[in-house]
Amino acid sequence: MAKATREAYGETLKELGAQIPEIVVLDADLSASTKTAVFAKAFPDRFFDTGIAEGNMMSVAAGLAASGKIPFASTFAVFGAGRAYEQIRNSICYPNLNVKVAVTHAGLTVGEDGATHQMLEDIALMRALPNMTVVVPADAAETAQVIRWAASYQGPVYIRMGRAKVEDVISPDAEFVPGKSTTLADGSDVTIMACGIMTQQALQAAKMLAEEGISARVINMSSIKPIDEAAIVKAAKETGAIVTCEEHTVMGGLGSAVAEVVVRHCPVPMAMVGTEDVFGQSGKASEVLKVYGLTPEHIALEAKKLVEAK
Amino acid sequence: MAHLTEERVLELKAIARKLRVDILEMITKAASGHTGGSLSIADLITLLYFEEMHIDPANPKMADRDRLVLSKGHAAPAMYAALAEKGYFDKEELNHLRQAGHMLQGHPDMKHTPGVDMTTGSLGQGISAACGMALASKMDHASWRVYAILGDGELEEGQVWEAAMYAAHYKLDHLTAFVDNNGLQIDGPVSEVMSPLPIGEKFKAFGWHVISVNGHDMSALHDAIEEAHSVSGQPTVIVMKTVKGKGVKETENQVGWHGKAPSPEQCVQFVKEVEEAE
């Protein structure tokens, strides 16, 4: 079944709201889109719209956290990690306050709204901040697991969600553990590491490769920071090549995070699938992904090139 | 409304003189820091820490304490002088302001300094954090209050007005903001760099209760805070007319003293002037 991660976000917030009275939800006039409206309807006295003022929202969240509340602050990725970057840095991460920055509409699959709304550099920005944990769930089930974990964890967390529906890839019975990846398919010739909507693409790519006799391991790397160093080292040693895939620029995101581990501990050839040094554009989500090569076909091609070059 | 007695005013003035001496000496030792804006809020800081706020230096994280957010974080020396005088930490720490390996950072850091309720320094963010705190107090039907101190130059940050809108919208009557209207910012007079004037009218238009007061008059400041406590359903801003560098003739109303430290020789002379003042 396909479902958008943001749908799971709203539902899980509502579920947690009943269990944890300290949870407070903030939004910047996008609650119908981010799905925080689901929480707002159930707990109107614990939902505070800040209006279209994201910088204020992040610092207000910091003040709430400093007073013992557990704020979830939501907007689109570009307005959270982008417009309010410095508030996240100085009001939230530097004092290490317990704020959950939960953003939706990340990446190209925003679609028709185009480049101004297609955030492609937020993983890089958030990953560079001390004290910040960065998570990109692969599907609705994992989103619920991540939100439940985030509510119980003390400290800032950036949770990156999307607009479009994604196929189920993670077991609904799984539990999210920061710094732990999930191996979704085993393989010996190459490893494909992905996060967010690209995990489902990676699984499709592995099927394509199997038809050509290439055995690909597929790992869901939803926890970008901390990252599962052990799984990366193991994959490098056992498969000798790694392809990363992300709905994000290849500068500073998942690919970079994996490469940092690979070059330090076990250098092997890598390829990075993501957007290059460009902005997005308007179009249907599926069409825009094709324009920028964020497809199973492209992942399979990159993997094949690495295997052939061994 | 209970006014301050004349005797109490004299006591508070004596404390303010002490804080001014500490401000001058710590900035001189650091050879770095914001002299002008620290001296201009020394009287307010004295009144808040030694008269108004419900706090306990032995229990800096006390749940029902009043909070103070120094949104103009560069005036940290004034806050540090008060915290040390109250006993939140050893006065010896003041000798190590802005020095590597010590706790007194250039701007307030809640994780390293006991008594600091919010990390500030990037202008405009403190007032928003104070809104979050006041909202938490209101949600819990608690009695603790939140005070925020802003600079007049700081009002040029758009986020201040996002917060101003927010505080009025959510009727944050637990929040009292002060504007240190000393009229000067780094590049010159605020009226010439980028005028935030008129200040009171702007806050009034945003839905705040506005009080104007001489920021160096303890009795008037005290009465203004009492008035703020009596207001319900809206936040209050107390616009304080102040003198940048207040207390030392050479630094008063001098834009050059915004971020300058006195030399050791100047410090001796300045401290003498403060100590001999009324």
TrEMBL record, chain A:
Protein name as catalogued: Transketolase
Domain Transketolase-like pyrimidine-binding: 3-169
One example GO MF annotation: transferase activity
Organism superkingdom: Bacteria
Pfam families: Transket_pyr, Transketolase_C
Taxonomic source organism: Allisonella histaminiformans
Keyword Iron applies: no
UniProt xrefs under InterPro entries: PDH/Transketolase, THDP-binding, Transketo_C/PFOR_II, Transketolase-like_Pyr-bd, Transketolase_BS, Transketolase_C
Keywords: Thiamine pyrophosphate, Transferase
Cofactor names: thiamine diphosphate
Signal peptide: none
Family membership noted in the UniProt record: Belongs to the transketolase family.
Automatic annotation (TrEMBL), chain B:
Stored InterPro entries: THDP-binding, Transketolase_N
Cofactor(s) listed: thiamine diphosphate
Domain Transketolase N-terminal as annotated: residue spans: 14-262
Organism superkingdom: Bacteria
Keyword terms, alphabetized: Thiamine pyrophosphate
Family the entry assigns: Belongs to the transketolase family.
Protein name, UniProt field: Transketolase
